[in-house]
Design goal:
By secondary structure, the protein is of the alpha+beta class. Helices cover 24% and strands 13% of the residues. The protein has two helices and two strands. The termini are far apart.
Amino acid sequence: GALPDLVHTHPSETVRDAIGILREYGVSQMPVVGAEPPVMAGEVAGSVSERELVSAVFEGRAKLADAVAQHMSPPLPLIGAGEAV
């Protein structure tokens, strides 16, 4: 599908849902946010990566029905819209 402004998931969504979102949009990582975009920095709870989630499932450390909050990593670095990259 068309790439949204912010590919994201929420802490209460399942690992299965998060992997599906990552694959649908062809991205390897995404933020875990507590609100719908536009998102303030304080609303970013963490991040997930497809590689880490799939590895956790295959290694038995995660179940597809688990909440994303149980398996997220620290937030990705953030920059403001007007900041130079």
